[in-house]
Amino acid sequence: MVFSKVYGVLGWLGWQILPLRCLVCECPGEDGMDLCRACHQALPWNDRACRRCALPLATTDPGDAAGDHCERCVDEYPRQAAASAAFLYAPPIDRLLIRFKFHQDLAAGRLLSQLMLQRVPPFLAGPLQPMPLHRRRLRQRGYNQALELSKPLARGLCCPLWQGLQRTRETAAQSNLDADARRCNLRDAFTVRGHPPAGLTVVDDVMTTGATTDAALRALQYAGAGPMQVWVCARVP
Predict the structure, then answer these.
(1) How far apart are CA 89 and CA 235, in angstroms?
(2) What is the distance between the alpha carbons of residues 228 and 197, in angstroms, rounded to a whole number?
(3) pTM score of the predicted model
(4) Please, is 67 exposed, middle or buried when counting C-beta atoms within 10 Å of its C-beta (0-12, 13-18, 19+)?
(5) pLDDT digits over 5-57, tens only?
(6) Helix or strand or coil: residue 83?
(7) How far is residue 179's CA from residue 174's CA, in Å, rounded to a whole number?
(8) Rounded-to-integer distance, Cα 217 and Cα 220, Å
């Protein structure tokens, strides 16, 4: 936590003093971001996606009643009422997320938050809940990437942060597991302190199978939460 605060202050000072530089191609940044116009235009925006799980959709007939949902969500609604992902998990967003999450590049996180604010989901109406990390993982990494995304989002949208969701059981890395193993891995991994506020939106960096999201929302539901939403930076197709 101390690392996050110190690194954040140093990053802010550097942002004020140093010229903007594109984090993708190193050309001069534009529009107040460390991103040039050409790289901005080439970003993999997730503009056509399922409203329930943010999975990218193929173009369909506008008259199709299921056109706003993927086949899986038509057959079985997920736990969240709605979901949105600003991007597909594709270059250069995937590389920026890896730098942010695993290489202490909080400048990449700041840029990703700025970009998410360009695609604010219409369902957003309440507090943001960052996806929590287990305390041991937090000590290892020095910061929670979901929280570092959520802070500027909350400031930009003038909405509160709520952090009643806690990750109380350490789990194996999800990246090496299939969908069924991911669900088993996350069983009873989350608890909730306090009563969840209305209109809660859970924020995370990436959604893959949705297993982590489902486990977190299940804990929130057991604690009395009403309809909840999910907002992530990127969705794995």
Answers:
(1) 5
(2) 10
(3) 0.87
(4) middle
(5) 544 554 555 545 578 999 999 999 999 999 999 999 999 999 999 999 999 99
(6) strand
(7) 9
(8) 5
**Are the C-beta atoms of 198 and 223 separated by less than 8 Å?**
no
Residues ≥6 apart with Cβ < 8 Å to 54: 46, 83, 84, 85, 207, 230, 232, 235
Residue 218 CA to residue 82 CA, distance in Å, equals: 15
* Single-letter code of the amino acid located at 95: R
Of 177, 229, 180, 170, nearest to 203 by C-alpha is 229
- Would you call 135 helix, strand, or coil by DSSP? helix
Q: CA 16 → CA 13, 57, 86, 103, distances in Å?
A: 5, 40, 26, 22
Q: Which two tokens stand for residue 60?
A: 């369909």
Cβ(80)–Cβ(217) below 8 Å: yes
pLDDT classification of 63: cutoffs 50, 70, 90 = very low
Q: pLDDT, tens digit, for every residue of 77-112?
A: 899 999 999 999 999 999 999 999 999 999 999 999
Tokens of 18: 């140093």
Both structure tokens of 120: 């604010």
Token pair, residue 198, equals 């209305």
Phi, psi of 193, rounded to the nearest 5 degrees: -105, 120
Instruction: Identify the DSSP state of 102.
Output: H
Q: Which residue has the tokens 């959520």?
A: 150
Q: Strand (E) positions, 125-200? A: 128-130, 165-167, 190-192
